[in-house]
Amino acid sequence: MNRFISIIAIIICMQHVVQHLTASSVLVEAESFQHKGGWVLDQQFAFQMGSPYLLAHGMGKQVENAKTVIEFPSSGKYHVWVRTMNWAPGDWEAPGKFRLLIDQVELNEDLGTVQGWSWQYAGTVNLKNKQARVELKDLTGFEGRCDAIYFSKKKATPPDDFEELRSWRQKQQMTNADEINIKQVDLVVVGGGTAGCAAAIAAAEKGLTVALIHDRPVLGGNASAEIRVHTLGVKGNFARIINMIDTKHYPNGSAESLLDDEKRMKNIRKYPGIQLYLNWQAFDVTTKEDKIECVFARHTSSGEVMQFVAPLFADCTGDAWIGYWAGAEYMYGRESESTFQEGVSSPEGMRIHFNKSILEKWEEYKNIVWSPLTKDNRVMGASVLWNSAVKDADVTFPEVPWAMDVAGNHQAINGEWYWEFSDDKVNQIEDAEKIRDHLFKAIYGAFYNAKKLPENSRVNLEWVSYLVGKRESRRLTGDYIYTFNDVRNNTSFEDAVVFETRSVDVHHQQVLLDKNQPDFISDAIYYKTSYHIPYRCLYSKNIKNLFMAGRNFSCSHLGLGGPRVMNTTAQMGCVVGYAASLCFENNVFPRDVYQNYLNQLLEMIKQSNTKVEEEMH
Questions:
Q1: CATH topology of domain 19-172
Q2: Each residue of 227-253: pLDDT tens digit?
Q3: What is the pTM assigned to this prediction?
Q4: Nearest to residue 322, comparing CAs of 192, 190, 186?
């Protein structure tokens, strides 16, 4: 299916300078600002709210102005609107307020004070020239956000309705499909986490040309210095490759992850067969006869669009975007107990881990049943990691009344993996910004409470991720669906390609009624010595040329609980890269490898840790 003309991202398909002039108006996309100052580019919710945007992520300290120069069709009076939102509405001042400066003149309107993404009127400006410098001035350091700025000589508010806005944006901006740059390779890998990096390396070592597309400036996904989760899981037959992209076992949230980012980038760049596209966000695919023909991606700052053509594709996006757009079958949420007969209320090897205070209040949860009687939309939640440091002098932290509805009286000065949020009423994809903002409240509120203690007077909030670290969302359906029963029974597969020993845990979560505590996570863990995952879980059941590797592999909710960690998903990536080389060499599809070339694949895996003939180091 070709949705290229109608999909949301074509609306924001722009020339290298992301602004458009009509006879009487100018639309400026905030992500195109030439100097972003202390504002950061946040692209992770573009498919829900319409575009990447700039975020004033100052952790309570005002950030440096973002600046750019705008060309206008003529001088004169312009009305100004800013697309923004108040991310924590309530009976308090909006936490993310900012203002607009035009040629160093500050407009009087506080922006970021309207609920929900919408256009806020910023006032008027009289331009003496056809060029002006525009700045975003952060007022709080607490997550102000700017999507776009619209200047018009007519006082007509741009549309807020999502579909109307999409159509309006398309008319405002220059879109010319004839100018799209086309890249043709042997394998397109979308998603630069450990699974995607491993797939690219494995395929490149077998001689394939690979386009590795990633929507952030650094590789690694959850293992990157932007999210900072250390890699877990065994490396199986692929230690040589995974050692190039994994992390040390640093504390989650540690700045040591910066060194692993450097290692990962260095090792990817040394492969001439890998064409790396950082800051490129895939937004659509075209399919024909149950095959993907190409992937479209756009640069998150410039808006430039590229088309990637290949016979084979690997979805390593985590959220399974490529499969989703292609029409691949997928799963989301917890299956009913009867679907796979995975009920594990009290099996041998089962352990329930609770905080002591939780045990006192929630004794009944000692008999958790993991699979519900009927299917629901609860999944493992997302985390936002953070940390602090002790300084030589006292450090202040501002009041955060808008955070207390989540934080309550909870006190903390560091955040580990358990700073997690999930609920059956929120979707990890559609509500990801809401989830991230909920965690912002928990972090800032708990830290503020801790700062009131004398012993924390010198503690400084050092780092907070603004990216959501997800554990689970869509899972693509393959020829085999891996379940908890395969772990429990150590099912023997003729096409076993990934090995793991990690215990199964799915982060059973409840919300406390007592608001003296924020949301909490309790571990329900099943201990198992070893298990294997078959190759048939790593390609789509109904899209012929689509592989998948990562947390979107073919599994049930409980089946994901053990092998979801990054070294294990990197194993999956290695298998996909090798299988892709067999597909390319024999002009076949992923399923054909299982049916006709399985022995060759297994031999490749067996030999994986031997040094490749080409000198790559």
A1: Jelly Rolls (2.60.120)
A2: 999 999 999 999 999 999 999 999 888
A3: 0.91
A4: 190
